[in-house]
Design goal:
Rossmann fold, 10 helices
């Protein structure tokens, strides 16, 4: 593999969702050399059809490092949702066993785990880049993104959501919360945002629909696991009877922007990009 158009070879560590596919499309349009490291049981099999790839079980670190060096990879990007594996799903090779020993109990919590993995990868001479470095046009802009603006109660619910996420950020719980008329309906945990939205449907009370608030955690490394929403998020929000979404501008990936905003607009859902100063003030 030789670099094209001054882009060095890159590897995509792929999970579920649309984001890995979008990155592949960008690499192909740039004629950039790339390979995919796809996690078994996580990435879509169709994603890597006719694409250089390696399927990995969690813990196969040695196999991954060998594949990266074999393909002269210098940079890695992580994208897509990945469910944290149960211990029974981890199949470490010898290098993986050494990594697990280094991680130990320090890896408790998703953010600590990701930080430690990044450190170990960078110790081997690779550079981690963020999806937002490649897909800058997909970052949510600041402001009200639909013609429907939040009413006073909507803004109070957004503010309440930021307060809750501020309190939860230090303990590494989740990126999202659903608020309905000042009440905390649900908080994202290990199940992810989609499951939080679906769960909130049965928990809401009569009255105005709730609001989904989703921002990056204070200690979150922007190169991995950035908050992401798209058309499917909007559909789930609508199905659960929520009436609005607030995300952090500049730190949230907005997939299929035109489709997402059109669907929200058509269905009377407000969508707001919150300024970083507003979000960080709460955090």
């Amino acid at each position: 593999m030789q670099p094209a158009h001054n882009h060095p070879p890159i590897a995509l560590l792929a999970g579920r969702g649309d984001l890995p596919r979008l990155l592949i499309e960008v690499f192909q349009s740039q004629q950039r050399p790339f390979v995919v490291l796809a996690f078994k049981g996580q990435a879509d099999e169709e994603l890597v059809r006719n694409i250089p790839h390696l399927w990995l079980s969690f813990g196969e670190v040695g196999a991954a490092l060998h594949y990266l060096r074999e393909n002269k990879i210098q940079e890695l990007v992580m994208a897509g949702a990945i469910a944290r594996p149960a211990m029974s799903e981890i199949r470490p090779d010898w290098e993986g066993i050494k990594w697990l020993a280094k991680l130990g109990t320090k890896a408790l919590g998703d953010d600590n785990l990701l930080k430690l993995i990044i450190e170990l990868i960078e110790e081997r001479g690779f550079r981690i880049v963020g999806p937002d470095d490649i897909l800058t046009e997909l970052l949510a802009p600041e402001g009200i993104l639909t013609s429907l603006e939040p009413d006073d109660q909507g803004w109070r619910d957004v503010g309440r959501g930021l307060e809750v996420l501020s309190a939860l950020s230090p303990v590494d719980v989740g990126q999202a919360v659903v608020i309905q008329e000042d009440l905390v309906i649900g908080v994202e945990a290990i199940e992810g945002t989609d499951a939080l939205i679906e769960r909130s449907k049965s928990l809401q009370r009569p009255g105005l629909g709730g609001v989904l608030v989703k921002i990056a955690k204070r200690q979150q490394d922007q190169r991995v696991d950035l908050p992401t929403i798209g058309p499917e998020t909007v559909r789930k929000v609508l199905a659960s009877g929520l009436r609005g979404i607030a995300v952090e501008a500049g730190r949230t990936i907005l997939l299929k922007r035109e489709e997402t905003l059109h669907l929200a607009q058509e269905k009377g859902l407000f969508l707001v990009g919150l300024g970083q100063a507003q979000c960080r003030r709460s955090l």
